[in-house]
Amino acid sequence: MKHRLLYVVLFVLLSGGFHSLKAQQVTVKASIDSTHILIGDQLKLLLEIEKPKNLQVQFPQVPDTFSSKIEVVDRSKIDTIKLENKDREKLTQSLYITSFDSGQHQIPPFYFRMKNGQVLDSAATRELMFQVHGMKIDTTKGPVDIKTVYAAPVTLKEVMPYILAVILLAAIVFFIFYYIKWKKKNQPLFARPEKPAEPAHVIALRELDRIRAQKLWQQEKLKQYYSEVSDTIRTYIQNRFEIQAMEQTSSETIGIFKQQKDLVDAKTLDQLQHILSLADLVKFAKYTPLPDDNNLTLMNAYFFVNQTKKEVVKAPEKQEVQAEEESGDEIEVAK
User: Fold this and answer.
1) How many angstroms separate the most distant Cα atoms in the chain?
2) The Cα angle at residue 311 between residues 307 and 312, in degrees rounded to 5
3) Among 158, 315, 304, which Cα is nearest to 234's?
4) Where are the domains of the chain?
5) CA 7 to chain centre
6) What's the sign of the alpha-carbon dihedral 237, 243, 247, 253?
């Protein structure tokens, strides 16, 4: 009699505990993001439970395989989500599953174990179904990949030969055009840069020094002596005054100087006329001048060049200009 009474009391207590646990509204759910996949693709399986905060819950212990046809690839940690009702919370966990067998597959229910004080209980999710589709094989083309091949990024090492080829081709084209242009102008392919021209008087004085050193008239080479002296003076006139003296007669050259009186003074013109006239007599009339005339002709040539030379005025250096300015300031202060 006593044992029967004890059983009744325990039954009442347990019944009240289960009723209290269910009254707390525990909701469990399992869902997948798709019901159709290709063979080898992955599905996301989401496990959720909404419960009171004070209720202890143990998530389902999911193995690596549900069956020989469903595998668990990865799983996330259990996340806690806050709800508007501060006394309740929501826990979630994501599982990533796959299958390599075509056909329809079943995911069994998941059981959440709960403990409220001394009372134990569990809640199960519903079963899930999904379909795995195989790839259609065209036997006429042979086996094909499940997914298309992704193009790998191009590296600099791979494109460098093409870049060098383009540069080489451009260089060849440039050389061909340059060669054609050079051929038309009839100029050397690789010409040295021309040196800056020397002043006319520098060239003339150097030639006169050479003639004096040769001592041609002392060797009775009068025609060569007067020819070289007159040619030197004519070349100087052409470079200095831009008068085509090498192509003109002596009288024509003298006539230009007489017309343009501002070029040389009368004394200098007389010396030029003496040089050219005497040279014409020696070269064309076989005239034999006196030794004094030979020496005077060379001296007149030196005089003509030095009297008519055009000096190049160099710009004053920066330090000299500053020194002049400072000296000018000192003079103004002294005043």
Assistant:
1) 178
2) 170
3) 304
4) 25-133, 160-189, 200-308
5) 91
6) negative
C-beta of residue 21 within 8 angstroms of C-beta of residue 112: no
Bridge-based pairing state of the strands 111-116 and 128-133: unpaired
- pLDDT single digits (tens) 269-306: 888 888 888 888 888 888 888 888 888 888 988 998 89
Residue 205 in tokens: 């004085």
Residue 252 or 331, more confident:
252
State whether residue 109 is helix, strand or coil: coil
* Amino acid of residue 10: L
Q: Phi and psi dihedrals of 115, rounded to 5?
A: -140, 125
Pairing of strands 128-133, 36-38: parallel
The yes or no reply on domain 25-133 and CATH 2.60.40.740 is: yes
* Length of the chain counted residue by residue: 335
Question: Quick one: tokens of 283?
Answer: 């070269």
Predicted TM-score of the model (pTM): 0.40
Q: How far apart are CA 65 and CA 72, in angstroms?
A: 6
